From TrEMBL:
Keywords: Signal. It comes from Alteromonas marina. SUPFAM superfamilies: Purine and uridine phosphorylases. GO terms for biological process: nucleoside metabolic process. This is Purine phosphorylase.
Length: 334
């Protein structure tokens, strides 16, 4: 009798829940917000400190409120009258995915500009230089494969992966930016399959492309701001376009660096940007990412110097970031 009563109670409870139309599931609806916000994003402390320090010197850049959501700090304010939210993703693709999606769920964001440091894959870069890649790739989505028993230099490819490679090879005939996939030892690269609203199935995405309007704003900003220099006075190199790569590893290996350049034509490598790009793409948010060179990603002689140049590189990147924000303000229809 008691068991029957319990089962009846559970059934009634779920029935009531299913019929309760007052329950709203999912993220907040910001469709009625006219003046959407710009997210100003960094990855970790030296980068966000450089942004905060720059804002502190400006009368028309203000942080008016700080909120914490699930432990993540979001700073709300205005930049020359335009609403912004400033936050740090934390290092790594997992942290970036969580913090950016939360921001898009809880704040009315329609544009995202990220600034941070990166390792140089293209040998033309030195610490302090800036890259604003047009495309971002994941470099360590991969399959770890055993060598063949009778030939240690060949690998026993799983059937599904062999079919993927055929598809990837054929795609290069129609997409010049598609990666030229090849293995590095037992590591065989592949790519993520993405889904978004309006798609009935997941699609493999070799890369994510930055918003063209924001790229043009970056180019205009570069012609208007003073030359960006190192503390020594040396003028830095700024490139807009090209490719960046993202992974869950800190790249500090010369052979892997060469492989990244060969497969992805990579200019820089870091640990968040492709994730930020994917989340923005799925949420229909315009995005652009600035990366300042802090190290040579294994191309140096001796120890990596990222810890020496991270603050300096964050400072040079912030100069360009402010120029792009100025362009956003100038072109806002309001």
């Amino acid at each position: 009798m008691r068991l029957s009563s319990f089962v009846l109670f559970v059934c009634i409870s779920f029935s009531c829940l299913a019929k309760d139309d007052s329950i709203q599931y999912g993220p907040k609806d910001f469709s009625n917000v006219v003046n959407k916000w710009t997210a100003v994003v960094a990855a970790y402390e030296p980068e966000i400190e450089a942004i905060d320090a720059a804002f502190a010197t400006m009368d028309d850049a203000q942080i008016t409120q700080t909120v914490y959501i699930k432990g993540v700090k979001y700073q709300l304010g205005t930049y020359k009258g335009e609403p912004i939210v400033v936050f740090s993703t934390g290092v790594s693709i997992t942290n970036a995915a969580m913090t950016v999606q939360m921001a898009l769920d809880y704040f009315p964001i329609d544009k995202l500009v990220m600034m941070g440091i990166a390792g140089a894959i293209n040998p033309k870069y030195t610490p302090g230089d800036i890259a604003v890649p047009e495309r971002w790739y994941f470099h360590d989505e991969s399959v770890y494969i055993n060598p063949k028993k009778d030939d240690a230099s060949a690998y026993e490819l799983p059937d599904y992966y062999a079919k993927q490679l055929e598809y990837y090879k054929a795609r290069r005939d129609t997409d010049k930016h598609a990666p030229n996939y090849k293995n590095i030892g037992f590591i065989h690269p592949t790519e993520v399959a993405v889904v978004k609203e309006g798609w009935d199935t997941r699609r493999r995405m070799p890369y994510f492309t930055a918003d063209k309007t924001l790229l043009e704003m970056a180019k205009r900003a570069l012609t208007k701001i003073p030359p960006i220099t190192m503390p020594s006075g040396k003028e830095i190199l700024v490139d807009i376009g090209g490719n960046g790569v993202t992974g869950s590893v800190f790249v500090d290996n010369a052979k892997y660096r060469e492989w990244l350049r060969d497969v992805y034509t990579a200019d820089v490598a870091e640990m968040e940007s492709a994730t930020v790009a994917q989340v923005s793409f799925v949420n229909d948010v315009d995005w652009l990412i600035i990366r300042s060179i802090s190290d040579l990603a294994g191309g140096q002689h001796g120890k990596n110097v990222e810890n020496v140049f991270d603050a300096i590189a964050s400072g040079t990147g912030t100069n360009l970031l402010l120029g792009i924000l100025d362009e956003l303000v100038a072109t806002d229809p309001k």
